[in-house]
Amino acid sequence: MQIKIGSKLFVIFLVFKLFWYPNLYANESDLIIEIDNPRFSEKGLDEKQYEIKAEKGLKSGENLKLFFVEGKFKTSKGTWIYLKADNGDFNQVSNIINLNKNIEIVSDDNDSINADTANFDINNDIILLKKNIIYKKNKNIITSDISMITDNFDSITYQGNVITTLLLK
Fold first, then answer.
1. What is the pLDDT of residue 97?
2. Largest CB tally within 10 Å, which of 1, 24, 42, 66?
């Protein structure tokens, strides 16, 4: 009888140890929290304004995986820039957003840029675009492998296989 009770206690101990006990030591980075309609914005004294939102987010530690991302930010000249992407990752500590798939950036000045991936460093106002970049303004088109947008959208550089089509009037 004592052996049966002892073996039952041993089995209960094993179940406790295997299934419940490891969860006592779970890290914050192990925990995934689903967030509906996450939104991040800033309106600073230096006129820097931005807003990033998504349909859904999965938060794990400092990172937030975003789905169906939209955003807007205001340049120092007052021009609004709008962006969309299928998904992305936002690191809240570094203030960097990595966007993926169907990236579209449009400005109030009728500029449009499409790309496959983008890295948006909010603190340094740098957007690095990679793969299949297409810039359009009026009927002018620039395609490239890599593009970097700096100086509050005043400077756009292109690298890699760059092709420019200009409509001369």
1. 87
2. 66
Choose the weakest-confidence range: 24-28, 36-40, 48-52, 150-154. 24-28
CATH 2.40.30.10, applies to 32-165: no
- Name the residue ranges covered by the structural domains of the chain: 1-27, 32-165
pLDDT tens string 45-96 = 555 677 888 888 888 887 888 889 888 888 778 888 898 999 988 887 888 8
* Count of other CB atoms within 10 angstroms of residue 127: 25
pLDDT at position 1 = 46
pTM: 0.72
Closest CA to 100 of 113, 114, 86: 86
